[in-house]
Design a protein that fits this description.
Blueprint (H helix, E strand, L loop, with lengths): L2 H6 L2 H20 L3 H20 L3 H9 L1 H11 L2 H20 L3 H21 L2 H20 L3 H20 L3 H20 L3 H21 L2 H20 L3 H14 L4 H8 L15
């Protein structure tokens, strides 16, 4: 069911299809039929995105919420690839909703991913954590670009919390990518004058950096400092005093960690080199 099909049907008919697909996906997950479940996860995603582009906010919201029972069953059965597919699908629907300035569905998408990140943390699944981070980043960039402040704040908070979880689990690559996403979103928030989002991005970067320091994740600590410096200077240029001050305080906290010696030791500048690890689906 693509965009044309969605536009030809009423909301009730589309919702009926979504409920059927969700129930069938749960059934397949219970039976351990991962490839079949993934196929239906993809169909729900296609309907969700098409509905966002068609302006059907109620349908988009339901498409997102109907992933929850599928995700829970997939987690219970250890169907990791299905869980990853759900996370990425939610991210794409949330991104499309944000692009259409649908703030409520975008916030729901972020919240669904936040719930999934807690599950991923409990099972210590690196692949799921990376998928959630990527999806939250896509939503965060979308809603920030559209100046949807509440959705941006919610998404940034969940992204930062997932970054701290990743650092605590010693998922270095995942934590690094959270920092680079927070830097990107924080910089965009400054450009859009979303002060609360910018402040949250800086504060969470500091939190991740401190967690990394405790865990001995040197590259993550160094990236936190680089990202904070970048946002600090951008905030100063735009006269956003609070973000600049929060960044300055966090950087002062990091001084005792010997950042100069650390940078020399690592002999690698990580700025601007975001590359998500491949996620085999």
């Amino acid at each position: 069911m693509g965009l044309a099909s969605v536009e030809e049907k009423d909301e009730a008919s589309i919702l009926e299809v979504l409920y059927y697909l969700s129930e069938l996906a749960v059934k397949y997950a219970k039976e351990g039929l991962e490839s079949d479940a993934k196929r239906l996860i993809e169909r729900i995603k296609e309907i969700g995105i098409a509905s966002a582009l068609a302006g059907l906010e109620l349908v988009v919201t339901n498409a997102l919420l109907l992933y929850s029972p599928v995700a829970k069953e997939a987690c219970k059965r250890g169907l990791e690839n299905a869980v990853v597919s759900i996370a990425l699908a939610i991210g794409e629907i949330g991104k499309a909703a944000g692009g259409q300035k649908m703030e409520v569905p975008a916030k729901i998408a972020a919240s669904c991913l936040g719930e999934m990140s807690n599950t991923a943390a409990f099972t210590r699944t690196r692949k799921e954590t990376i998928a959630v981070i990527f999806a939250l980043g896509e939503i965060g960039k979308s809603v920030t670009n559209q100046s949807l402040g509440d959705a941006a704040n919610r998404t940034v908070t969940l992204l930062g919390e997932t970054g701290k979880i990743a650092a605590n689990q010693n998922f270095e690559d995942a934590a690094l990518n959270v920092e680079l996403l927070l830097q990107e979103i924080g910089t965009e928030a400054i450009e859009k004058n979303l002060k609360e989002t910018a402040d949250s991005s800086v504060r969470l970067l500091g939190d991740i950096g401190r967690t990394a320091d405790m865990q001995g994740l040197e590259r993550v600590l160094l990236q936190a400092a680089y990202s904070l410096e970048t946002i600090k200077f951008d905030a100063q240029d735009r006269y956003l005093v609070s973000a600049s001050l929060i960044a300055e305080v966090a950087l002062m906290d990091f001084e005792d960690s010997g950042l100069e010696k650390l940078e020399e030791k690592l002999n690698k500048n990580l700025r601007g080199k975001r590359k998500f690890p491949d996620i085999d689906l």
